[in-house]
Amino acid sequence: MTLNNYRYITVEGPIGVGKTSLAKQLADHLGGSLLLESPEENPFLEKFYDDIPRYALSTQLFFLFQRANQVQNLKQTDLFSKVTICDFLLEKDPLFARLTLSDEEHRLYQQIYDHFQPLAPDPDLVIYLQASPDTLIQRVNRHRSHYEKNISESYLWKLSDSYTQFFHQYEKAPVMIVNSDNLNFVDHPNDFSLLVERINQMRSSREYFNYNL
Predict the structure, then answer these.
(1) How would you classify the pairing of strands 84-86 and 125-130?
(2) Which residues pair with 175 in a beta bridge?
(3) Which CATH superfamily, name and number, covers 3-210?
(4) Rounded to the nearest 5°, which phi and psi values hold at 72?
(5) How many other CB atoms are found less than 10 A from the CB of residue 104?
(6) CA nearest 88: which of 22, 37, 32?
(7) Which of 55, 72, 171, 181 has the fewest Cβ atoms within 10 angstroms?
(8) Which residues pair with 210 in a beta bridge?
(9) Prediction pTM value
(10) What is the pLDDT of residue 82?
């Protein structure tokens, strides 16, 4: 199965790894439609990075409702008419909740999440972008937006580890795990071509693309 045969592709990874940029490139390459997170619409996000315990629940619930509404539209769309590229996986949402919420808040969140989760269709392919915490820190510092100005290095380390654990157990769709430490899909077109080639060569439900300079 080649890249052109997939109808619903999700690009995932922690903050700073470049998932939105890659999703846009894939959409341009395939002539597909984009479904992107909109963190700038979350009124709690900037406060969250400044005071995580206080604003974690409100931030998380806003994102959950936002993402659930977005993927719900996919259920009503003919996914076979045009490929859709998404830069988030709804199933990953509890990862952030476990990382930031108190036990009581997490129980409340889980009840709400359980109500929305079945609305999300499973992707045909997940591209999981990895990068070392040091690389993530460098990229966030280089490109951080106003709402990311207070992200701590310790939070990025914990987030990176949580993503690793999540995708170690994820089995609902084929996964291409990409080590992006030495890849720059935006500035180096050949890197993108290499990724497309590796996806086209996938023969199992979990494969790795580890590019060494």
Answers:
(1) unpaired
(2) 126, 206
(3) P-loop containing nucleotide triphosphate hydrolases (3.40.50.300)
(4) -60, -35
(5) 9
(6) 37
(7) 171
(8) 179
(9) 0.92
(10) 80
